[in-house]
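Researcher: I'm preparing a figure for a lab meeting and need a structural model of a single chain. I don't have an experimental structure, so a prediction will have to do for now. The sequence is pasted below. Please return the structure as tokens so I can convert it later.
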Amino acid sequence: MPPAHPVETLYNAHHSWLNGWLRRKLGCPDSAADLAQDTFMRVLTAREAPQIVEPRAFLTTLAKRVLSNHYRRQDLERAYLQALAQMPELFAPSEEEKAIILQTLVELDQLLDGLPRLVKRAFLLAQVDGLTYPQIAAELGISIATVKRHLSKAAMRCYFAL
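Model: Understood. Here is the structure written out token by token.
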């Protein structure tokens, strides 16, 4: 019998522990199970196999990132639903359109992850709200040249992510 894949060994040895750790953090066994799987998927799909000296510390660090993304997605979804609630019913998107828009927002959030807050804000004001450079500058209290730099940085992040 061939030796087990390193991720399989890690999974078998630590999945129950990680699932319990996430359950205590979330208070929801279903979400904990999903996020435990997401954590191991990150290990499995990593470009380079990580050299793991302390498996639980490694998994905790990775799970905290997954958990952070989970909370960020919840915040994004909540903000989107609040914006929809303020729309007149006549203009509200269909359920399918809502799902597509939410998925697009989540993907855009992931693309912009790691950029400074003002860079993200400038990009969203331009792309989502359709504001001009002078309007963005006024909204954020920055110069037009800074708006251009911010939008260029965000556009480069999106371009190279494709």
